[in-house]
Amino acid sequence: VLIAARRINGWTLDDVKYLMQTPLVGEMTDISRLDSRGNAVLLPGQSLTTFNGSGSLINDTKTGPQLRDSSGAVLWSILEAPDKAALPGRLHIMGSGNLAFYSRNSELLWQSESGKDDCAAARMRLTQAADGGSVTLSIEDYGKSRTLWVKTVSL
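Above: the chain's sequence. Below: its structure in token form.
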């Protein structure tokens, strides 16, 4: 069943191997993506993690969203010079495919500028490379099965 669902979910073979070791019961939440149709916001202090734990996207309350490796080292930061007064904030994937980070006062601080008028639902995924050498944050259009935005960093 997981192999059959692999393509539609965008899973690599490593993802399927991980899922084979994970109890697939209804109460389990997805640890590696945000979905505009539900679970669209990463709140302060929350994080997403790759299936193998090699990378995480953490919405840090003091620095904003950051990609980090398994040791906690920062690989990429959405905000280059965060304004402490604007944080904490929330990261939101929109149905249009735009990923946006808003301040505590709902002011737009950063956006991927990947939104499309013809996109009705999108997801943001955090994945690791099969060789374990990189982590990728991507935004995908559900309806058209296309990638709208990608950020890949080496580990």
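The chain has two helices and twelve strands.
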